[in-house]
Design a protein that fits this description.
With 316 residues, the protein is α/β, with parallel strands linked by helices. Helices cover 60% and strands 9% of the residues. The strands form two sheets. The protein has a five-stranded mixed beta sheet with strand order 1-4-5-6-7, with helices on both faces. A two-stranded antiparallel ribbon has the order 2-3. Helix 2 packs parallel to helix 7, helix 3 runs antiparallel to helix 4 and helix 4 packs across helix 5.
């Protein structure tokens, strides 16, 4: 009984300790969630940094490579790569630095702006009455309209480092906020498009970036095809030069064969040829150790030896 009682007491003590630790963890998580909620409600800069975090994740999932197909600025929270060559000061002395520059083939660029205030949308979600919700939703749409108008004034195309600018993408990091704005004002997207500004949500932005990645992949394939064609042409030209050398070598071989045949003809053909005379010397008793090749003897015109003079013809 004492052992059971002691074990039960120790088990309850450990359980109380774990419950206390869980309580502290819960409190910390609640405090952090509250701090994040307060920050998103009242601090537009934190909202912008949070939007940049989501934007960076979408860029990583798109298949594009940082530093090659796109460049990002430096945020206060994110350790993004500095794009000093695309940071400039406009005529009013204000510094312009796009959040993201997406490079397109053929020397074109797309700018992504992620600094969208969602304070009014948060008020819309947390409103208790329908009137408060409608007012917050109108304010949310007005905020997006003001942001689009401000982007229209910014001359990103004039910044150093920006190539031919196609569009500026306004990134709304919350899908529902994007959809609500579109439902509230159906002309919002069209009016932004007239200024070469396109509003995108996480889903549409990912689809757009995947399309750009496909364009780059096709561009690399075309570039490889051009390189293959160039190398194939160089290989063809080199092969033609080798064939020309072979033809020249054949002509030299033919001339060599002709010279060989002529030399052999002079050695073995005709009356009194050199081979015939050497054979006669051998027949007359010349001391020779090597015999002449049979092939040469077969080709040679061997002269018949002259008959010995008769005894009575000594004077004649």
């Amino acid at each position: 009984v004492d052992e059971v009682y002691t074990g039960d007491t120790e088990g309850r003590a450990r359980l109380l300790h774990e419950i206390g630790a869980l309580k502290d963890l819960n409190r910390r998580m609640s405090d952090e969630a509250l701090n994040l909620t307060r920050a998103l409600k009242g601090d537009s800069k934190v909202q912008g940094n949070w939007g940049e975090v989501i934007l960076e994740r979408i860029l990583e999932d798109s298949g594009l490579h940082k530093g090659r197909e796109y460049e990002t600025q430096v945020g206060s929270v994110l350790e993004f790569r500095v794009v000093d060559e695309v940071a400039s000061v406009d005529a009013h002395g204000q510094r312009r630095m796009p959040d993201v520059i997406v490079r397109l083939p053929e020397g074109r660029d797309v700018v992504i702006d992620a600094k969208v205030s969602l304070t009014d949308y948060e008020r819309f979600c947390s409103a208790d009455t329908e009137a408060e919700r409608e007012a917050a939703l109108r304010a949310h749409v007005a905020s997006l309209q003001a942001h689009i108008a401000a982007l229209g004034v910014k001359d990103y195309a004039a910044l150093e480092g920006i190539r031919t600018l196609d569009f500026v993408l306004v990134f709304v990091p919350i899908e529902a906020a994007f959809m609500k704005a579109m439902e509230q004002d159906a002309t919002l997207f069209g009016r932004a498009f007239e200024r070469n500004i396109i509003m995108v949500s996480p889903t549409t932005l990912l689809a757009t970036l995947r399309t750009i990645e496909s364009m780059w992949r096709l561009e690399r394939q075309n570039r490889n095809a051009e390189e293959i064609a160039r190398r194939a042409g160089a290989l063809h030209d080199q092969f033609a030069r080798v064939l020309e050398s072979l033809e020249d070598l054949g002509r030299h071989l033919e001339r060599t064969r002709a010279a060989y045949d002529l030399t052999l003809e002079r050695f073995a053909r005709g009356r009194g040829n050199l081979v015939s005379r050497v054979v006669q010397l051998e027949k007359l008793g010349a001391k020779a150790r090597k015999a002449l090749p049979g092939t040469i003897l077969a080709l040679a015109d061997l002269d018949e030896p002259e008959p010995d003079p008769e005894p009575g013809d000594a004077d004649g």
